[in-house]
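chain below, 280 aa
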Amino acid sequence: MAKISKRILDRHIEAMELLKKDELHFYDIQKVYDNYHEGAGKMNNLISAHFTPYSIAHSIAHNVRRYNFVDLCAGIGILSYALLRMDQMSGLDEHKTFGVCVENCTEYYQVGKKLLPQYHWINGDVFDDRVIDEIKEVMCGRDFSIVSNPPYGNQVKSSNEKLLYQKGYFEYRAMELGALLGASDGTFLIPQNSAPFRITGTSGRVYDDSYLSAEYKKFNSLTGLEISANNGFTTEINEDQEGWKDVSVVTEIAIVDYEESEYADKILAAESGKQTSLFV
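prediction:
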């Protein structure tokens, strides 16, 4: 268990008590999202699980382009909840949207499914072929976006043999997964050092060659996917807002446009190379 204060633990226990109710109302759901602590019962550092602060989730929601979405590494669904609240506030018909939430941690999955039963929840590794097949099946015929705050860096090794970008950073693998799933675009929360741009905490250039890390260049070269800046939203936390729990990380909201990418050509080239090698 992560080291958390008695006050925070008491709030977490209160959230867990609310989850025992047969039916959750709006304020119950809001209180669970406010008080549930991802490190109270799990070694969240080992699985690199750090839930998105709601202020950042709200900014991410403003950058999601499609009504339908797949929330990868969803945790208890804070990004999906932010999308739902934005739709509700804008008066959008709830039947116009369809969401899929994928989470590997069974506890987070169960909590999220209780909070957002209107969405299709999948308990499993996002790179597992079974999970990928289920996502493709339920999203078949739908135009959809990816939304995700994935684990960062190379601590979590999960991957899929179909990916062109192997090993390396999890956030990049998650971005490529969106292309494999057939999404139109994706909105991701990633570490600032993984982004080829800067919006948060700077008044300088948004794009500069100095921001292009060796790992990003490798990802871009292998997949043909480009990461672009969002619509001007920073991820800085104001003093009156709830911030990150147990971690301090500078992030950016990054956009990937799969429809405008060279990914399909890269896949064809890779398949052609495999076929050629069979006859050498």
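The first helix runs from residue 6 to 18. The chain is about 35% helix and 15% strand.
thats it, cya
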